[in-house]
Amino acid sequence: MSPLRSNSPLRTAVVGAGGIARTSHLPALRTLAAEGKAEVVAVVDVVEAAARTLADEESVPYASADLGAMLADVRPDLVVLCTPPAVHREQTVAALEAGAWVWCEKPPCPSLADYDRILAAEKGGGGRDPYASIVFQHRFGSGARHIGALLAEGAFGRPLVAHCQTTWYRDRAYYAVPWRGRWATEGGGPAMGHGIHQTDLLLDLMGPWTEVHGMAARLVHDVETEDVSTAQVRFASGALATLVNSVLSPDEVSRIRIDCELATIELTHLYGYRDADWRITPAPGVAAETSAAWLDFGEEVPSSHLAQLRVLVDDIAQGRRHATSGEGGRRTLEFITALYRSAFTGTTVRAGDIGPGDPYYTALHGGAPGWAPAGGAPEEDRA
C-alpha cells in the first residue's frame, strides 16, 4: 500500500456484494466520495458475476472473486467487509497483512479467539498502523454522543438502573435460509446477531461491566442457537441493568433506558435513531434551566453507517485509533460471550473470566450439551 496522505481519498475495497453493501455501505461511501474523502476502487464477491454487476453499477474499475488477488493488484487503503461472520477473521487478517485498514460488519467474528487473532495481526497496534474496526454505528449518532458526554461528566448524577431491549420478530421463512440459526455461519442467535448493536451502545454509555448472569432458550425456532435471551448485569459504577434479546416479538422495538440520580434517559427506535427518539425526564427538583440545557443536542447526526464512516475516515487520516477497534470492539464481544457462558452453565460470569483454555473462548456454545452442534466441541485455541 502506498503511504496514506491525509488529504487523499481513502482508496476503498468493498468485499461482499449483497444487501448490506448496497443499502448501507455504498451509499455512505458515495457521500464521502463526493466530498473527496473516499474512493471505491474494487468490489469482491465469491460470485464473480455479482462482483462485476455491482462494480458496473457503481462505476468501480476492479471486480473479482479472489480477495487475495484484489489485495495484491489494487492495494487498497481500506477494506470494508460485508460478508458473513464465519469468514470475517480470515478476510480481516488477510487485509491487515496486506497493509489495509478494515471496517467489518457485525458480528465481528464467532469467538474471542478469532478476535484476538485479528488483534495479533495488527502490526504495532498504533493509530498509524492498519487496524480492524467493527460496524457499531449506534455509538456515532449525535444523540448517543450528547448523552454519553453528559453521563461522563456526571450531569445526570450516578447511573443507577438500566434496561436494554432488542425485541424483534423473525418468522420461519427467515430461518429457512440454510446459514441462519447456526453457530458456525450466523455467529449466534439474537444476543449476537441482532441485539449486539443495542448492547454495544449500552456498554458505551454505562462504562465497564463487572458481571453478568444470563438465560437463553429456544422457544419457537428449530435452530442451533437461542431465539431469546435475558441477562442481569452489574457495572463497575455499581449500577444494575437487565437485557432482553428476542426474535419472537411481533411488536418490534429497540430500547435503552437509564435511570440516574437526576434524570431518566430513554431511547426508543427500531434500526436507527434520530435526536427526537431520545427523551430525558428530569427528577423532581431539577432546575428548569438545567434540564433545558440537556436538550441541546447540537447539529443532528442520525445513527448510520455514514455517521460512523465519517469518524473512521478522519481517525485513519489523523493517525488515531477508532473507537470500535482493538479493546474498544473486544469488550462487546467479551460481554456477549460471557452472557452465553452464563446462560449455558447457570453461573455468574465476571469480566476477564474467559480466556485461552476456556471452551467459550473458542466457540460461543462452549460445547454445552443441548447447544453445541453435533460433533461441535470447541476447536483448539487458534489465537
Descriptive labels:
383 residues; alpha/beta; Rossmann fold; Dihydrodipicolinate Reductase, domain 2; 8-stranded mixed beta sheet; 6-stranded parallel beta sheet; 14 strands
Helix content: 25-40%
Q: How much is the average pLDDT?
A: 95
> How many strands, what sense, and barrel or not for the largest sheet?
8 strands, mixed
Task: Say what the CATH topology of the largest domain is.
Answer: Dihydrodipicolinate Reductase, domain 2
**Total beta strands:** 14
Kindly provide the radius of gyration, computed on alpha-carbon positions and rounded to a whole number of angstroms. Answer: 21 Å
Q: What CATH architecture label of the largest domain applies?
A: 2-Layer Sandwich
Helical run tally:
14
- Describe the strand arrangement of the main beta sheet, using strand numbers: 13-12-11-7-10-9-8-14
End-to-end Cα distance, whole Å, is: 26 Å
> Could you list the spans in which at least 5 consecutive residues all have pLDDT below 50?
none
Domain count? 2
Portion in beta strands: 15-25%
Please state the overall shape, judged from the principal axes of the Cα atoms. Answer: globular
| CATH C-level of the largest domain | Alpha Beta
CATH H-level superfamily title of the largest domain: Dihydrodipicolinate Reductase, domain 2
Briefly note the structural class of the backbone. alpha/beta
